[in-house]
Amino acid sequence: MELRICFLYGGLMNIYGDRGNVIALAKRAQWRGIAPIVKIINPGDPIDPDYFDVFVFGGGQDKEQYVAARDLQKLNGERLRVAVDYGAVVLAVCGGYQLLGLYYQPWNAPRIEGVGLINSYTIAGNERFIGNVIVDSPYGKLVGFENHSGLTYLGEGVEPLGEVLKGKGNNGTDGTEGVISGTVFGTYMHGPILPKNHLLTDHILGLALSRRYGKIELSKLDDTFEFLAHDIAAARPR
Ligand code: GLN
To answer: What family is it from (predicted)?
Structure first.
């Protein structure tokens, strides 16, 4: 078995260690005898919508977001939508999450049209949310770090990834963090999120593999250190 991972705009959208999400997926596949294949798609490279099992789309500042958004509008947005139709899983973080919604309205700058894969929209606020986050989710307590000024609001037909226990989350007001929209996951949690939250990693891994192999039972790993690190982070947020 192999797991085909796309690090979408990896050279551009990769802030606060978001590349660690690719490494966590690849390692947890490899430890189970599943061969990971990682490809970086840069602006100008066309995505083959039938190839990838999972897309990892990291965060970036507005400057990088404009470049990524232009490529999504011109070339890859439609390809990504088709890939999701074919069952691919997407994990998008912060700036990437914002670009998968309907639009992102930066502060004092032209609106960026999104891919529309998620029924959400984002408007830049005048406050920056910086700090550790804890979220109650179907995959246990998720721990991470947020740094954004964009305020994301979810529309009909999508679920939040979880409920904020500490931090600000999507917009600092409605108590939601992130989104689950079919096989598309969005979150503001850097950290990166997956190495710190291996239950979510395994959920995404299983979902991604099911695209080509059907539902499979992932073998158990020794997660002593993962649980320890996670529990320390969840118990002592600063
Ligand atoms: N530019 C966005 C914001 O500040 C995204 C930042 C990020 O990806 N960390 O809201």
So the answer is: Belongs to the CobB/CobQ family. GatD subfamily.
